[in-house]
Specification:
two-stranded antiparallel ribbon; 61% helix; elongated; six-stranded mixed sheet
């Protein structure tokens, strides 16, 4: 052990050295010098173009077969999901397949998340559909859905402009090293936002499930308004279309929830249920004439699926400022979702995800994809899980999927013309069952902290009742607000001595009373001053029986755990000293050497509360002896 010391004695005995704070220009100079010394051209190239780092180490013997098998498996999933999510975005279904091909070619070169399947994603498609529906002409109704005098743009032109802006936002954010801002999109926010957005996805597909035509609703509150519109037109439901939809939904759910888990015992590859359904109903529609005989809406009603690769074309410049604001939300969400998946798999397989490089990679991929009529790409949880489970090793998996999808674009596109649109809508609904079930996660987040629960509820309700953009904005604002609230209420703990001599939290254990140790953890600043003063006064004047008492006893005030202390926070120490002195009690302060520079108190300052308690006890005994004399 050691002798009891005050903070001054401790600093003198152990030669405390006060470091002068570094100036900003010195920090910048030091950082620049370090970067220049450590700079290496090969390392720089491999960091910007990661394929230059891992491709030379690629093992044909151990990696190639796994990557080829995984790529083929995921390509089968890309076909139905790409078509379905292309339709969801308000463009031709084949655009979803374009999105799984063109941007992925760039991502293979620049990306750092080999196990994340990049392509279409439902939430991003529904976010993209907003500007696409507002600015793009309906291919069935012509320009009639636009105001008179407005320029007429096709929906694919609007989607390409959105993709360009999404890529631009991501790429510039990567250049600005803004990847750290993804921390604002917490797990709580992403969970609530994804569940809320899934309700918009479901709602957008109800008209296809029922086979009805409704007036499109936009703006805040569009979801409940859409259901009102559906209710008005429910009598026009196409029963044949409804029957197809129910059949597809039931089969997809049964195969996913019951049959699929059982087949995993003897086969690591998932059943291509969605692809088989598309092939079956395309064949039935072709031979039975679903469109002409039963009035079922098919891909033919939307337009012709082109054969071959689209010619590269720069997005229409005048559209870019019109869609820029609507592009920020999908740019942020697609990056955050992909990064979350990447970190999950990276932790499992032992590699690091660099957020700034991912911004550059996804930004460059979307910029490239915008020249080929793609919608913004994003990571998909369902495909990524399959990609990882089927043996993916590197980005060669994504390249394999892209090459296989090329054959669909070159040769197989027109074969899907008779496919009922209700089949794609049903596949979307069935795939969202797992996401909708996550609404029960609100209890998990509430159990973690009521603040987390509030963020989840605010984000979810604002997304559902207002719109996806408002949901994201209010979710971020509520997250920041709760962070401020937490900083305003630093943690407070009051210790008292128990019968065995151990000092324990008096609110959680049975203690004897007497001298108290008041510990504060977290920031102590002007926002926390008033509330913390009230809490301290309440803790010191409330007895074990809940009654108010005048004598608080001697107190050790421990602020060594305070992470930030401003001038107003220092005044709390002065107030406590005056408050105790007026009641004939003593105060001992525990602080760090840095904190003592600006503290103005007459009480002694100690390095630990043990030192303070021992000296307070000796001072009290000495004073009691004087009183007796």
């Amino acid at each position: 052990g050691r002798n009891v010391l005050t903070l001054e004695d401790l600093s003198e005995k152990y030669h405390f050295q006060q470091k002068s704070p570094s100036k900003y220009h010195e920090k910048i100079k030091s950082y620049a010098k370090k970067e220049c010394q450590e700079f290496s051209c090969p390392n720089f190239l491999t960091s910007v173009v990661p394929i230059l780092g891992w491709l030379p180490k690629y093992s044909l013997k151990t990696d190639l077969v796994n990557d080829l098998v995984s790529g083929f498996t995921v390509a089968i999933m890309h076909i139905p999901q790409g078509m379905a999510y292309g339709l969801l975005a308000g463009v031709d279904p084949v655009v979803g397949i374009y999105t799984a091909f063109f941007p992925v070619l760039i991502y293979v070169l620049l990306g750092t998340m080999p196990h994340v399947s990049m392509g279409t994603f439902a939430v991003i498609s529904i976010m993209v559909s907003k500007p696409v529906m507002e600015l793009g002409a309906d291919p069935l109704a012509g320009p009639g859905n636009l105001e008179a005098g407005q320029p007429v743009y096709s929906r694919i032109q609007v989607a390409a402009a959105v993709t360009f802006c999404v890529g631009l936002v991501q790429f510039l954010a990567g250049l600005g090293r803004l990847g750290f801002l993804s921390m604002v999109l917490t797990d709580t926010l992403v969970s609530a936002f994804t569940v809320g957005a899934s309700f918009h996805v479901i709602t957008s597909q109800i008209k296809h499930i029922l086979g009805v035509s409704i007036t499109r609703q936009s703006g805040p509150g569009n979801l409940p308004l859409t259901y009102i519109e559906i209710g008005k037109n429910i009598a026009t439901t196409n029963l044949f279309t409804l029957g197809i939809s129910l059949c597809v939904i039931v089969v997809c759910i049964l195969m996913d929830k019951i049959v699929g888990p059982k087949t995993k015992r003897f086969c690591r590859f998932p059943l291509p249920t969605q692809l088989m359904i598309i092939i079956i109903f395309t064949s039935l529609s072709q031979f039975l004439g679903f469109r002409t005989n039963y009035g079922v809406k098919t891909i033919d009603n939307i337009g012709q699926i082109p054969v071959g690769i689209p010619h590269p074309e720069f997005p229409i410049p005048e559209l870019i400022p019109k869609v820029l604001l609507d592009s920020v939300a999908p740019a942020v969400v697609s990056f955050a979702i992909g990064l979350g998946l990447g970190k999950l798999f990276g932790k499992k397989h032992g590699y690091e995800i660099r957020s700034n490089q991912e911004l550059l990679a996804q930004g460059a991929s979307n910029l490239f994809g915008s020249f080929f009529n793609c919608i913004p790409m994003a990571g998909s949880l369902s495909r990524s899980v399959v990609q990882e489970a089927s043996g993916c090793r590197t980005n060669i998996t994504s390249l394999t999927s892209a090459i296989l999808l090329l054959s669909v674009m070159l040769y197989l596109g027109p074969l899907f013309q008779p496919l009922p649109v209700a089949v794609l809508a049903s596949i979307i609904l069935a795939s969202l069952v797992g996401i909708v079930q996550k609404i029960l996660e609100v209890k998990k987040y509430w159990d973690i902290s009521p603040q987390e629960g509030i963020v989840w509820i605010v984000t979810f309700l604002s997304t559902v009742l207002l719109d996806v953009d408002y949901g994201l904005i209010l979710g971020v604002l509520s997250t920041l607000l709760m962070t401020v609230v937490r900083s305003v209420r630093p943690s407070l703990r009051v210790l008292e001595k128990c019968d065995t001599g151990v000092w324990l939290d008096k609110n959680n254990f049975k203690t004897e009373g007497g001298t108290k140790v008041v510990q504060v953890f977290g920031p102590l600043h002007f926002l926390a001053y008033d509330s913390l003063r009230e809490r301290i006064e309440r803790e010191l004047t409330t007895g074990p029986d809940g009654k108010v008492r005048e004598d608080p006893g001697n107190v050790v005030f421990d602020i060594s755990g305070v992470s930030f202390l401003d001038r107003r926070g220092m005044e709390l120490v002065t107030w406590l000293e005056d408050w105790l002195t007026s009641r004939g009690c003593y105060l001992g302060v525990v602080a760090t050497p840095q904190q003592t520079e600006h503290l103005k108190v007459d009480s002694e300052i100690f390095p630990t509360y043990t030192d303070a308690l021992l000296i307070l006890q000796s001072n009290t005994s000495a004073n009691q002896a004087k009183d007796i004399v």
